Amino acid sequence: MILLTETNPTANVKHEQDERIEYILSDRWIGYPRAKNILQTMEDLMHHPRTFRMPNMLLVAPTNNGKTLLLQKFFDAYKPVITPETKQITIPVLYVQAPPTPNEKAFYANILCALNAPFSPNGSNAMLQLQVIRILKKVETKILIIDEIHHILAGAYLSQRAFLNLIKYLSNELQIVIIGSGIRDAFSAINTDKQLANRFEPAVLPTWKPDGEYFRLLSSFEAMFPLKERSNLTKEEIAIKILSMSGGTIGEISTILKKAAVLAIKSGKECIDLSLLTKINYVGPANRQRQYESMLL
């Protein structure tokens, strides 16, 4: 006896839509020129020989303008490696966040947590420092990434200086590259110590402007989205609308376009145009504070 399975066309269409929406909402790297140049700089630093005065980099960008995704992209390229013969683990790049305030013990704890190393929370700063240095030497770390480095400014002046001295000490003692990352305040944080500031080469991800690079970015998004109709995102009125809504950061541009692409699928329109952009559930960064305040009234 042959059993015939009846297919449900509606269910198939819904499944196909869900797959496309999941694809749209997934994080994907778009290698635009400025980001590629910064990645190349980090790659060059990775291969810098160990010297008594190691070069460093300070990556600065407005909130939600791609710095963390860029750092993650670099970090993913240098995951820990275990040598089968010796069971030796190598961690070429370590990625940590600066603690909320410039606290030496909290910073060492963040490093040890990132290394999955057991430690005593009640241990002295000196003991934690020795443990960090011993492990980083053993795993042959070459680059230490410190994200949200502007948190240094959240402490008193003496705490800021002590934390910067700590960063300088690690760089000197381990002969490793430090990559700091943060918002514009990061410049002020590092410049508290002029000697240390001279070691940090700035790399900036500015907000987007209506230029050729921005239009190429929109083309990349359009090529990435699995919509059935052409959107023409580089059409001037659409491009300017997206830029004005977003405030010029790539994170907001991505959010707008993802919301619009999902709505294009759900509505059956299958493309992004001006009318669709007005219908997405989106509040721009400039209007969010006003919205929060109005909700509290």
UniProtKB/TrEMBL annotation:
InterPro entries the record matches: AAA+_ATPase (IPR003593), P-loop_NTPase (IPR027417), TniB (IPR008868)
Domain of life: Bacteria
One Pfam entry name: TniB
Domain AAA+ ATPase, first and last residues per copy: 53-202
Protein name per the record: TniB protein
UniProt organism field: Mucilaginibacter gracilis
Lineage: Bacteria, Pseudomonadati, Bacteroidota, Sphingobacteriia, Sphingobacteriales
